[in-house]
Design brief:
The chain is 32% helix and 15% strand. Strands 3-4-5-6-9-10-11-12-13 form a 9-stranded mixed sheet, sandwiched between helices. The protein has 11 helices and 13 strands. Helix 1 crosses helix 2. The protein is elongated. The two termini are 35 Å apart. It is of the alpha/beta class and 409 residues long. The structure holds S-adenosyl-L-homocysteine and iron/sulfur cluster. The site of iron/sulfur cluster has 11 residues, from loops.
């Protein structure tokens, strides 16, 4: 377990002192909070269980709603902590129902400027998928990805990852006995609006291994948010040494951003390939713990016009994956301002998909969702770029010896 840092009340963007939130914390983190307010050790496990249930199962927003906890303790908790969620600074709803939220994480002190990240909800007929971020920006520089051009980077904390699901459930009314702001109810068949999670937002999840692992522990806990590990997919650009540990410690579904079948081209598109070439990557996939026909690896392949979309490449793709229980996900390239790539023509994508399909693979072409709100894969950057520019300015001011500004604006 990574340590949940116990934070003191810190000034937020508006200068108001905010109490640290309990939302998003692990059981250990909640235990620490109880210890801080003097709850005796022998009582803590039971209290953690109660808090857990109220926070994650019911999604309550006030300590006073926690009726199984005595009034005195509720008051003590409320004095020292909050149940705040990150602020939603923008919500966009696409014509296809996709929603994108821009979230501002609370500032935790003078050196944390309150990072902004995006997460996206994609409703489909048989599921609702939440695409979450694991980092602010990304240290990798895949040439076709908008996030990869963003400079400001830090790992998201466990709480910040969990909070993305909490915000989504709150906005969608996706807790028991709740109604969404737009009047919709949680499906009454016991289902949930958010039924699946993919780590395909901003960042490389395997470079934030501990944060992601602990968040998945919270999210998949059946006493709380209850989203099973089989419904969680971690997508990686190929951090080979962490793939085995991902299977062992997180037990989620795995997606690999392959995108090319030759090392020279893959290194151009996904520069991390230089360090971990295709052969090593596929070897790690073959050894992925729990791999079976019921638990296949998804290989993502972004369709770039005239770059990686020939018939020969489709055939080579099939040959490379031989023996690995796999699904192939063809992603039409989502353009962004300033990119040098174009999306393959539709008949090319169909032809490519047919070759893959004939070889026995399901090869769904991922329908681009939320394009009108720049919410599709690899487009999550636009708003955070503002933060980046502002943060750069602040850093320059800091370096010049000016008083550090706290998430000014
Ligand atoms: N860093 C991880 C997860 C986030 S990216 C990874 O790279 O796997 C999620 C997926 O979106 C990856 O498959 C990525 O290659 C793809 N992607 C990035 N930019 C894209 C774009 N502009 N159009 C389509 N897919 C893109
Ligand atoms: Fe980072 Fe993934 Fe984008 Fe590559 S594709 S830059 S690893 S977010």
């Amino acid at each position: 377990m990574t340590e949940t840092v116990s934070e003191m009340a810190a000034p937020a963007a508006d200068g108001v002192l905010r109490r640290p939130s309990l939302v998003g914390r692990t059981r250990a983190g909640l235990g620490d909070a109880l210890a801080e307010i003097g709850v005796p050790e022998k009582e803590r496990r039971m209290r953690v269980g109660q808090l857990w249930n109220w926070i994650y199962h019911y999604g309550v927003r006030e300590f006073d709603a926690m009726t199984t906890i005595g009034k005195g303790l509720r008051a003590q908790l409320a004095e020292r902590f909050s149940l705040d969620l990150p602020e939603v600074t923008a919500e966009q709803v696409s014509t296809d129902g996709t929603r994108k939220w821009l979230l501002r994480m609370p500032s935790t002190g003078p050196h944390d400027r309150g990072a902004e990240i995006e997460c996206v909800y994609i409703p489909e007929v048989d599921r609702g998928t939440l695409c979450v971020s694991s980092q602010v920006g990304c240290t990798l520089t895949c040439t076709f990805c908008h996030t990869g051009t963003q400079r400001l980077v830090r790992n998201l904390k466990t709480e910040e990852i969990v909070a993305q699901l909490m915000v989504a459930r709150e906005r969608l009314g996706d807790f028991p006995n709740r109604k969404a702001p737009d009047g919709a109810f949680v499906p009454n068949d016991g289902g949930r609006f958010v039924s699946n999670i993919v780590f395909m937002g901003m960042g490389e999840p395997l470079y934030n291994f501990d944060g992601v692992r602990d968040a998945i522990d919270v999210i998949s806990d059946d006493q709380g948010l209850s989203l099973g590990r089989r419904r969680i997919t971690v997508s990686t650009s190929g951090v080979v040494p962490q793939i085995g540990p991902l299977g062992e410690e997180m037990g989620t579904m795995l997606a690999i951003s392959l995108h090319a079948v030759r090392d020279d081209l893959r290194t151009e598109l996904v520069p991390l390939n230089k360090k971990y070439p295709i052969k090593d990557l596929l070897e790690a996939c073959r050894n992925y713990p729990g791999l079976s026909n019921a638990k296949r690896i998804t290989f993502e392949y972004v369709m770039l016009k005239g770059v990686n979309d020939s018939d020969a490449e489709a055939r080579e793709l099939v040959r490379l994956l031989k023996g690995i229980p796999a699904k192939i996900n063809l992603i039409p390239f989502n353009p962004w301002p300033g990119t040098r790539y174009e999306c393959s023509d539709w008949d090319r994508i169909e032809r490519f998909s047919e070759i893959v399909f004939r070889a026995g693979y399901a090869s769904p072409v991922r329908t681009p969702r939320g394009r009108d709100i720049l919410a599709a894969c690899g487009q999550l950057k636009s708003e955070t770029e503002k933060l980046s520019a502002r943060a750069r300015l602040m850093l320059e001011q800091d370096e010049a010896g000016a008083t550090p500004a706290v998430a000014a604006e």
